[in-house]
Amino acid sequence: TFVVTDNCIKCKYMDCVEVCPVDCFYEGDNMLVINPDECIDCGVCEPECPAEAILPDTQPGLESWIKLNAQYAEVWPNITSKREAPADAKAFDGVANKLEQYFS
Ligand code: SF4
Ligand code: F3S
C-alpha cells in the first residue's frame, strides 16, 4: 500500500487521481488520502505527485500517516477526477509541519 503524507496538504495537485487504476483516493478540503483496503500497490501514483507526497508504507517512520490515511478514507468522499490545484499550491510546497496547521 502507498500512503499520502504531509506535503500533500495545501498542495493537493490531484495528479495522483488521474493515474490510479482502482480510484482509491479520498478527498478532504486540503489533502487526499489512499484507502489501504483498495490500493493494489501498483506504485504508479508515486512518481506522478509533484509534491512527492506519496510514499510506500514500507518506508520507516510513516506509522501516523498510515493511520491517518486509513481513518480518513472511511469518512471522506471518493475522488475520481482531477480538478485544478489550489492557486497557492506552489507556495505550500515544502512548508514544514503542515499537518498541525492546515490539515483538513
Ligand atoms: Fe492507486 Fe496504485 Fe497509487 Fe495504490 S499505488 S493509490 S492503486 S495508483
Ligand atoms: Fe496530493 Fe500529490 Fe495527489 S499533492 S493530491 S498526493 S498528486
Automatic annotation (TrEMBL):
Highest rank taxon of the organism: Bacteria
GO molecular function, one term: 4 iron, 4 sulfur cluster binding
Cofactor (UniProt): [4Fe-4S] cluster; [3Fe-4S] cluster
Keywords: 3Fe-4S, 4Fe-4S, Electron transport, Iron, Iron-sulfur, Metal-binding, Repeat, Transport
Gene3D superfamilies according to UniProt: 3.30.70.20
Pfam families the record matches: DUF3470, Fer4
Ranges for domain 4Fe-4S ferredoxin-type: 1-29, 30-59
Functional note: Ferredoxins are iron-sulfur proteins that transfer electrons in a wide variety of metabolic reactions.
Name of the protein this chain belongs to: Ferredoxin
Organism: Bradyrhizobium canariense
Lineage: Bacteria, Pseudomonadati, Pseudomonadota, Alphaproteobacteria, Hyphomicrobiales
